Description:
Elements: H1 2-20, H2 30-42, E1 51-58, E2 61-68, H3 71-83, E3 88-90, E4 93-94, E5 105-108, E6 112-116, E7 125-130, E8 134-141, E9 144-148, E10 154-158, E11 162-165, H4 167-175, E12 178-181, E13 185-189, E14 198-203, E15 207-213, E16 217-221, E17 227-231, E18 235-237, H5 238-244, H6 249-257, E19 269-270, E20 273-274, H7 276-285, E21 289-290, H8 295-298, E22 303-306, E23 319-324, E24 333-342, E25 345-350, E26 352-357, H9 367-371, E27 373-378, E28 388-389
Amino acid sequence: MKSILHTFVIASILFLVIGCKEDSNKAKGPVQGMLAEIKAKYAPDKRVALFDVNATKNTDKYILTGESNLPEAVQELKTRLATDSIAFIDSIQVLPAANLEKKTRAIVNNSVANLRSNPSHSSELATQATLGTIVKVYKQEGDWYYVQTPDKYLAWVDAGGIELVDEQKAENWETDKKMIYTQTYGHAFADPNENAAIVSDLTAGNLLTLLRYTDQYYMVRFPDGRNAYVRKNEAESYDTWLKILNPTVETLVSTGKTMIGVPYLWGGTSTKGVDCSGFTKTIYFLNGMVIPRDASQQVHTGIAIDSTKNFDNLVKGDLLFFGRKATDTTAEKVVHVGMWIGDNEFIHSSNRVRISSMDKTSKNYDEYNLNRYLRTKRIFNQEGKGLINLVKRPMLN
């Protein structure tokens, strides 16, 4: 019995020693520090930038592996290594992947494409992209493509949601005359009449090539070449839409109210379903402005208005952010966003799109969100990183 116990103890000690021993091939010291610095500089937010690069020591050289969609970051790494006389073998894949050949762009081909965190339908819904949006394509895994949306979000989309194209076809799509769908929800039809077969459903913000029009219908073309008809009273020529847009704080409010009752959907950014930041993003898009995807990104745009619950300083269209305040040991965490609509009320997606109040005497008083209120930012008519004015940059690519 003692012999068995002695053997077990020795084996356990050996396991701990071996298990705790560092991998001698793993990059450490200046190389590991260099990787961390470059990632912090170029890809601090993995949602919008990819720098997944590793270095392992092989005799007298480091082997660089991994991938990145940031050629400038990879080049800086190699330059710094060479400057410090550190020998290396470059095996980094700079995206787009070579096997895509020239099809490094795609156009969203459904009313809404679901973009997921990993290449499977069971994976988390990360975000959405609406019909007609041009995305960058970086790599393929089976029937899934790793893409980047115009607001820089990185995610996976299934082949059925997009039409793969090369740069020239993407440019052609961008310059084609367009129609934008302006209603919350509707359909495109096979013929210009009420009883025609449905070609596709449509959601607000969908873009299609405009071929011609009749008194009551636009004739349009989908990215994959399908032709269809859309009722003119539900859409507008994109150029005309931009000219007559004239967004105001009042149109922001009215746009938000058209979506009251739309269900909450984690990752949703369309009128089929929205999460909190997807809702504010959709409001602004339908008023000619692209803003960052997530609440924790939106909070870094615009100008600061309030952080003390002094709601008298707010105007309609301001964004209110909620979450956990910073402490001596924890950082601030933004987890929710809504839009101020005046009269002590804000509209937001929580279970569904709804209006809540900061007034304790109101029937729709929202004590929970008042208690976790962080700050208000104003982004309407503001400029800066992460904000795109569609009048100045007409198409999404």
